[in-house]
């Protein structure tokens, strides 16, 4: 199986582009050669590179890099969806973030992308009955990246978290495919209630900076949550909500807000 995966890597366009860009980066900035070789160029597959990168970022005096790397390698080998999701997240970041110009940037430098991939390993641990190790990964992701995602949360593919400072996603939250959110977003509960208590975010939703979505409510697909909003009620599909508490102020403005990243509320949209 390992040999098959390594052969497939030769026809993996995402990984091929990463390695090409990595070699170009070394040529233009030789002082980064050690970092780029060890993190990218040394590895036969994207999965192996991600396992190494995550282990390097999350290691501490409490847990060695070697142990975390073995966990990452095991996770990627066991669940091919982790690698597929990592590629979708990477393409989403390059496509949606105007500050991202190359595929190597998120893997090497963007804590939003790195935090999501580390969460995915923690979620794999959770799903395989290794809750305590999953909690350790959650703790280290929070400490290192400032992103606190419960390992039981369910997050789809093609997710982009821009800047990724002070993100909180609760235990029973669900985030669909092709969702984008900015810094300081909370998908939280409303108190001490137990059970299913966190938001369910549909596909292609855009969540603006500082938005708080609280409780077991649904955010309909292809909707927009304006920056700074506090959402306490369900949001229908294809609309924009804004305010404290949030209210519908118009249509979504485009077919896939989470992909287009258009946050501007046009004049006359309220009503």
Automatic annotation (TrEMBL):
Q: Where is the signal peptide?
A: none
Identify a single GO molecular function assigned to this protein: serine O-acetyltransferase activity
A GO cellular component annotation here is: cytoplasm
Taxonomically, the superkingdom here is Bacteria
Q: What is the top EC class of this enzyme, as a single word?
A: transferase
GO biological process, alphabetically ordered: cysteine biosynthetic process from serine
Assigned keywords, A-Z: Acyltransferase, Amino-acid biosynthesis, Repeat, Transferase
Q: Which reaction does it catalyse?
A: L-serine + acetyl-CoA = O-acetyl-L-serine + CoA
Identify the metabolic or biological route this protein is part of.
Answer: Amino-acid biosynthesis; L-cysteine biosynthesis; L-cysteine from L-serine: step 1/2
**InterPro entries per UniProt:** Hexapep, Hexapep_transf_CS, LbH_SAT, Ser_AcTrfase_N, Ser_AcTrfase_N_sf, Ser_O-AcTrfase, Serine_acetyltransferase, Trimer_LpxA-like_sf
Report the PROSITE patterns cross-referenced here. Answer: HEXAPEP_TRANSFERASES (PS00101)
Pfam families in the cross-refs: Hexapep, SATase_N
What is stated as this protein's family in its record? Belongs to the transferase hexapeptide repeat family.
Query: What is the name attached to this protein's record?
Result: Serine acetyltransferase
Q: Which organism is it from?
A: Tropicimonas sediminicola
């Amino acid at each position: 199986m390992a040999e098959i995966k390594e052969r497939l890597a030769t026809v993996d366009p995402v990984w091929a582009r990463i390695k090409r860009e990595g070699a170009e980066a070394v040529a233009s900035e030789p002082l980064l050669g050690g970092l780029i070789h060890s993190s990218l160029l040394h590895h036969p597959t994207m999965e192996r590179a991600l396992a190494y990168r995550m282990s390097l970022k999350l290691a501490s005096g409490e847990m060695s890099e070697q142990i975390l790397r073995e966990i990452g390698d095991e996770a990627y080998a066991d669940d091919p969806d982790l690698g597929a999701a990592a590629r979708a997240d990477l393409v989403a970041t390059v496509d949606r973030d105007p500050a991202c110009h190359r595929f190597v940037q998120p893997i090497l430098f963007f804590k939003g992308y790195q935090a999501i991939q580390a969460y995915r390993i923690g979620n794999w641990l959770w799903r395989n009955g290794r809750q305590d190790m999953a909690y350790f990964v959650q703790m280290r992701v929070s400490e290192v990246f400032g992103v606190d995602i419960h390992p039981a949360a369910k997050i789809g593919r093609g997710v982009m978290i821009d800047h990724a400072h002070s993100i909180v996603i609760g235990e029973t939250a669900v985030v669909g495919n092709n969702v984008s959110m900015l810094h300081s977003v909370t998908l939280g509960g409303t108190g001490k209630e137990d059970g299913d208590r966190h938001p369910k975010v549909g596909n292609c939703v855009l969540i603006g900076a500082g938005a708080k979505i609280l409780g077991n409510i649904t955010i309909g697909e292809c909707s927009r949550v304006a920056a700074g909003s506090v959402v306490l009620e369900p949001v229908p599909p294809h609309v924009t909500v804004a305010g404290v508490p949030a209210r519908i102020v118009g249509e979504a403005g485009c077919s896939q807000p989470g992909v287009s990243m258009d946050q501007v509320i046009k004049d006359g949209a309220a009503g």
